[in-house]
Amino acid sequence: MATELASQPDLWARAAGLTDLQALLPARGERIAVVGCGTSWFMAQSYAILRERAGHGETDAFAASEAPDARDYDAIVALTRSGTTTEVLQYVERARGRVKTIGVIGDASSPLVPLVDEAVTLPFADEESVVQTRFATTALALFRASLGEDLEQAVADARTAVAEDLPPVLIDADQYSFLGLGWSYGLAQEAALKMREASQSWTEAYPSMEYRHGPLAIAAPGRVTWQFGDAPEGLAGEVAATGAHFEQGRLDPLAELVRAQRVALARAVDRGLDPDRPRNLTRSVILDA
């Protein structure tokens, strides 16, 4: 996980230049759905909001197991590192011949590749670790570049996130609440998942404005509330009044996720856990027929 995590700045820069692959993604104006499982679902949520806000067209994001079959789309994007996840394969199979399907896949030899109309393969970002880091973020970097974003600052921020010292208050906390607004909410959910997977930590994630509607009750000394991107006015002070640490993300939200990945790794090491092989998890969820 450590080596894969640290490789992300270079991979994002590479993805930003892959204009041939970006051209395979849905065109401006198309109504689309993006599906995935786990980490890929959270990246799908971020992409959906970015695409709509950039004026590229209505975009829905679903966990593959919950994606509706009856809704009309111009294209479906299936995001999956392994290309073997049962729910993704089943959904694409049901969509074949009815709607254009595009796979964004880490393993170029996976069974999903021949099922989709267009295969956007990113084998250079694939991983050995069960816990995803670089494939998911590189896919989102590709999506962002396809929407016309300049990723130079995001890449620079990722280099900072990989190299800087982590404050002990982040590593030693006994609970974490990750918050995000708009597209960064999907990243907050992914940060919480990463901490649970790699280090068995108690983590939650909420839209920033929703945090006041109940979850603020969990804030206390020794706990962290971590904001990805700009925070709503007054929230930092409300959290500070509880005695909890408020971590205001100062980097591009995708680079801020890298910081959270590093905290997850550090906590796993401190606890004597293997972050590459978390308990009860496999690289891909493949269900019996």
UniProtKB/TrEMBL annotation:
Keyword hit for Acetylation: no
Keyword Chloroplast set for record: no
Chain coiled-coil ranges: none
GO biological process: carbohydrate derivative metabolic process
Domain SIS: 22-161
Annotated GO MF terms: carbohydrate derivative binding
Annotated keywords: Repeat
InterPro entries, A to Z: GlmS/AgaS_SIS, GlmS/FrlB_SIS, SIS_dom, SIS_dom_sf
Name of the protein this chain belongs to: SIS domain-containing protein
Source species: Agromyces protaetiae
